[in-house]
Each structure stands twice: as structure tokens, then as C-alpha cells.
Write the C-alpha cells for this entry.
Amino acid sequence: MKKRPTDQELYEITDFKYYLESERRLAKNTVISYISDLNQYADFLLTYENVREAVDIDSSHIKKYLNSLKKKGVSKQTIARKITAIKEFHKFICREFRTQDNPAIFIDKPKLDKKLPVVLTQEEITKMLDSIKTDTPLGKRNKAMMETLYATGLRVSELLNLTTLNIHLNAKYIDVIGKGNKERMVPLGDMAASAIRDYIEHGRNEICKVPGSLLFYNYKGEQISRQGFFKYVRNLAIENGITKEVTPHTIRHSFATHLLENGTDLRMVQELLGHEDISTTQIYTHIEKSHLKDMYNHTHPMARKDDKDEI
């Protein structure tokens, strides 16, 4: 049985990790995902192909690894993600070792079925927000978090990392530190600003036992975990009779879709979401078109024909 490679033998993965963090400045979770995928890739190559050095990898090795994933029933989405990590890694190796031999250059990602994100209606969002009771400090916090999430379309990590210095209630905007530590300014609506003000003035100090700059704390006075907030959002939807699979990202999708439905320019939505490439934002135009088609089919008298009209 072959031993697992050490960090030094992991085909320069440690150096690649440093590159992602310091030069690419990718988000922590993105880096973790890349490195996890590459460690699995390295383990396979060592165990089954006896390959220890990145410069010794050829396209046949990569294809064998991908075929092994398919045989295990790994989803196309997961395989596509792993291919992205492999491609980025080998581009890095070519640059660092000044070699033109990139074994991953002709490796194609599997074609994925395009699935539109789950989006809540404006009525469903309103129902969830209106159901939050604000007679306790935690209730005021929950109201402020949900109002802010829907008003700004923040990623869950961006919301949970907000500090009091990021909030400008009088000017009604917040400074957001997004992916790659890129900063953007996002407007804050009246409802969200009011909920945040109420939480800061009448709830935050009771939850935050020790002085700190975070805006939102859990009941222990610590930073709220992603898992904890995911669970809260899911339960809030269930309590309001919403059968869709709802996560904090669902609120972000809904924010973007509702803006487009109400006439906001796509470029503006891109800026608000913090998308680097507008092609990422364009998924919401498909959601909007799908929504309009459903509305047409349900409301236009000539959209459907009854059986009695057939000849």
C-alpha cells in the first residue's frame, strides 16, 4: 500500500494555495474547495498511476481520474468543478515552471443541464419578513438580517461579516467587502435601514456581551455561522407555508430577479451583486423571461385553448 504524499509531494499544491490566496485573492471557501479537489486528484495519481510530480502528468492521467469519478456516480456539476481546479492548477504549473506542456488544456467540462435558481415571489418575501416578531433582541436581529439580505442581495458571507463601520444609516448605504476583498457600495432601503437602526439601538448590545465591531451576533455573543443562518432561513420559509427549497442565496436570487422585473438595468444589477462578469448576472434575465411566460400563460385569454376549441 502506497503512502499518502506529503505536502511537498502534492505537486506544488501548497504553492498553488499561496498563489490563490495572495495573488488571486480568492475567497477563503473557494480556496478550500480548490485545494480539496486537488488533494483528491493527487491521491488518485499517486495511488493508481504512481505519478508524484506535476510535470509528469499527461492528459491520459487526467482522463483516467475523471473516468473514475464517473464510475463512482459523481455528478456532472461536481466533475465540472474539479476540472476547473485541475485546469487552474496546471496553468499555474506552466507559468511557474516555464513549460508549454499543459495536459489539461484540451480537457473539456461536461455539458451541464441549465437549471434556473429558485426564486421567491414578492408576496412570499413579504410574508416571510412580516412574520418576524421583533419583541426580543434576537427578533430585532432576525428582522434586520432578513430585511438587509433582501434589500441588498448580499452573499451570506458578506452579510455575516458586516461590521458597524460598514453601515451608513443616514446616507442609507453599506460598504460590502466581497469576493477577492473587492469593495462595493450597495444602497439600503428604508425598511432595512429602519430595522437595522432598531436592532442597533434596542437589541445588539444585549446580544453582544463583549465589545466587538460585528453587526450581527448569535445568542452566545459570537459570530453567526453560515449553517446557523441557513437553518433559520429554511425554517422561516417552512413556518410561512413556502414549499420551495429556500436558502439565503434564494433571497439573493429573488433580489436580483425582482429588480429586473421592475425595470432595473442589468449592468446595475451586476454592480449590486458584485459579479465580475455580466454573463453570471444574465441568468436572471432567463428567470425573468420564464416568469413572464408563466404569467402570460396563466392570465392571457388566448394563451391556452380548451379542448372544445379543437377541430
